[in-house]
Amino acid sequence: MTRRTLPRALAATAAAAAIALVAGGCAASDTPEKKPVEWKLSATTPAPAGDIDSFTWASYAEPFSLDYAYAFDYADNQILSNVCESLLRLNPDFTLSPGLAESYEHPTPETFVYTIREGVTFHDGTPLTAADVVASMNRHLDPAVGSFWYSAYQNVTSIEQTGDRQVTVTLAVPGEQFNLAMGSSAGVIESAATLAAKGADYGNSTGGVNCTGPFELADWKSGESITLKRYDGYWDASLKAKAAEVTFVFMADPTARVNALASGDVDGSWLVPSSAVQQLQNSKAGDMYFGLTSAVGSLVVSNLQGPLGDLKVRQALMMALDRKGILDAAGSGIGEVTNVLTTKSVWVGADAGAVDSAFTDVEPYDYDLAAAKKLVEDAGVAGEEVTIVTAPISGEFAVISQATAAALESIGLKAKIESITPGAYTTMFSDPSAREGVDLFYTNWYLSSPDPLEMYGVLRTGEFSNYGGWSDPEFDEVVNTAMAIDDPAARSAETAKAQQIANAQLPWLPLYTAPTTLFLGTRITGAAPSIAYLYYPWAATIGAR
Amino acid sequence: MIAVRRVAGKPGGLLLTLFLASLLIFFSRFLVPGDPVDFLLRGRKPSPEAIAEVTAQYGLDLPPWQQYLDWVGGILQGDFGRSLQYRQDVTTVIGDRLPVTLGLVVMAGLMIAIAGLGFGTIAALNRGRSGDRLVLIALTVLAAIPSFVGSIVLIAVFSVQLGWFPSFGSGEGFWDTVYHLVLPSVALAIVFTVLVAKVTRSAMVEQLVREHVEVATSRGLSRGAVVGRHVFRNALWPIVTVSGILVAGLLVASAIVESAFGLAGMGSLLVQSVDRLDFPVVQAIVLLVVTAFVVVNAIVDVLEPWIDPRTAAGAGAR
């Protein structure tokens, strides 16, 4: 039962923050009369006409660190994915392919044997060896490092070099979940010599990194920008960078970001605020793209001792939430209402029938106020109070908390909205005491591996991110069974059951899923709009338009 | 001689002020809810050993007084601790951002001095007439514009519409940096200019009606000489006093402007660090601002006798 509770909770908040920042107060004031934003999913953007000297990219925040052990967020990973590479590669379509491991074997249910690729060099020119792999991976097990990706490694008992170019990972429990995480930052490989030389400064703006990716870190102007330059010794000809240089500028202010994109000062950005999408679409500054996501926005039920402890009340709230209206107001209508906690994108290698059943044989919770009121009366909790916690992270947060409060009031409950700082909001994801007295909070939770079990593993009894302490023995059984199955198709049949149980029991209330947003200015093209940009060297594919 | 005594009398009081400030700055962090370690772990699932290890690495397991002594001891050796968010020495984190803020404050300071003194003088010399009213109305309107609104308007007009100035970043090299800091400095200077102009106006008006000015004028001295020698010189003291206070205000107010223009300065760093419970950075910045404030005001005190002849003569009005 490998389990990965990635730090994406935080990431989610930050991402939302980014989105929200730009959305600013506008989202809340969006009028229903406003024409909905037109959008359609794309898998790619037009191929570049050729190489380009340089381009600039806007990021809503500066990475705290480029140390892969702490790269857990949009700001860090969108840069790191171009500089550092993992054992496996998570592609824009969310499939995994060989990366720094040219192949791997799974000889016993508890072991993975990775064969390290030959001819790969780090940015300082030294060759990649099995010893680098062992050193890089072992850091996640070192308490002094305090890796954010520890959960991906928590069942690992040993990481050893077992051949000239071979590394064997032994697990305490059977299952493929560990390997599935090797396409994310959990699988990044750094030079052992660099790790030793930089020590505590590894990955910060003075220490820097020395990896194998298509770009190397050239300059980190603290607080302002990071510049990458093409690494000429890059091993994979198909992903050799088309741009000689990329500069990431940190623009916390959403208005400033949109201005910079609209005026052509900056060439592109991920996480375009939904409220600015229409403006950018109408501008001549470039094109908006919408792509694959693995994130679902949901309300976490963090207290099962209160009124929401009764399933009838959770169902009632779902039926009282006008999720389409919330999506329109909070996300300019860009996205889809969902009844489940995963997106189809992460069901890679799944059985088609299982996917169909996981997404259609579920309760739709259509808007029905009368039935919802009745459920609350039946539960005997009418008039009780529910506390929603929110933070001024984005317009999205404001809209969702207000709409949830209105929905609660409309079915005979009292609602209280508590607004806390974004920092305090973040600690709710790690500190149980910060969640005391909190019944509901919003999160936009993304997955980092091509398997929906990553989501459902989190909701098992006693899990760190099972914030409400929800427990369902049948659900635990199903998830644990699924985790031990190596074949993705066979596994997906079990996972579908887990998805159906979560949909029926509502430990979290799924609201909607919004696509990954990408803006490319008129000078550049070539990136695939997909949330895989967090782990895939997307900037290498961008060239001149 | 008086000036010498004043300087000599300062260091003791200055050090005491800084010591008390350091106590307040350091221990106030224990009043803030939230555990810095939670920020370090940021929502991930840690191993219990990692929590203990990380807590020890940042000295957060020590008793508060021990943490205080370590902190002060470190500062005396130029070590402000390690930033929790950037996992880097605070001196490096702040050192990277200090030039931007200093550049911003110096440029805004010059603008404030020139425009503030200029408008104040124009208003005072035209008191009661239309020129005065015009300046006063303009100042009142400007004073009502918060820095962030000013920033947005400036960017919208001069960056996006006209394309004269960059909308973000601090530039490379001296002249490029100056170019990049023009709009942010203007945004920062507006409110303070109004303050200086109003103080200048009232101080000069006060002087203009005094006897010695009338005497000077009746002696047939030119208007320029009267204003320069008698009015302006006597009016300078309140203006300098206000300016000393402005320095701290500028340092703090720069946060908003820095955020709006995407400048990596101390102000935006402070705001971020407060939100992220990055206490070592917050404490270092606050201590630096307090020190700057105390030192600038000490300098103003030392300068007083030269500026205000009455003090030097020992017949000060105070």
Describe the fold and architecture.
The complex is a heterodimer of chains A (545) and B (318). Helix content of chain A is 31%, strand content 20%. Chain A has helices at 8-23, 26-29, 74-83, 130-138, 150-153, 177-180, 192-198, 254-263, 274-282, 311-320, 323-331, 352-360, 369-379, 395-410, 422-427, 453-458, 473-483, 488-505; strands at 52-59, 88-90, 96-98, 101-105, 111-116, 156-163, 166-171, 215-221, 225-230, 243-250, 268-270, 286-291, 296-301, 336-337, 385-390, 414-419, 440-445, 508-513, 516-521, 524-525, 543-544. In chain A, the strands form 5 sheets. Chain A has a 7-stranded mixed sheet with strand order 8-9-10-1-11-19-12, with helices on both faces. In chain A, α12 (352-360) runs parallel beside α18. With 318 residues, chain B is mainly α. A two-stranded antiparallel ribbon of chain B has the order 1-2. In chain B, α1 (2-28) runs antiparallel to α12 (279-307), α7 packs across α10 and α10 packs antiparallel against α12 (279-307). The model of chain B is unreliable at 1-5 and 312-318 (pLDDT under 50). The interface between A and B is large, with 56 and 53 residues.
SSE arrangement:
The complex is a heterodimer of chains A (545) and B (318).
Chain A: H1 8-23, H2 26-29, E1 52-59, H3 74-83, E2 88-90, E3 96-98, E4 101-105, E5 111-116, H4 130-138, H5 150-153, E6 156-163, E7 166-171, H6 177-180, H7 192-198, E8 215-221, E9 225-230, E10 243-250, H8 254-263, E11 268-270, H9 274-282, E12 286-291, E13 296-301, H10 311-320, H11 323-331, E14 336-337, H12 352-360, H13 369-379, E15 385-390, H14 395-410, E16 414-419, H15 422-427, E17 440-445, H16 453-458, H17 473-483, H18 488-505, E18 508-513, E19 516-521, E20 524-525, E21 543-544
Parallel strand pairs in A: 1-10, 1-11, 15-16, 15-17
Antiparallel strand pairs in A: 2-3, 4-5, 5-7, 6-7, 8-9, 9-10, 11-19, 12-19, 13-17, 13-18, 14-18, 20-21
Helix pairs in contact in A: 1-8, 10-13, 11-14, 12-18, 17-18
Chain B: H1 2-28, H2 36-41, H3 48-57, H4 64-76, E1 82-83, E2 88-89, H5 90-125, H6 130-143, H7 147-161, H8 174-208, H9 211-218, H10 223-260, H11 266-275, H12 279-307, H13 309-312
Antiparallel strand pairs in B: 1-2
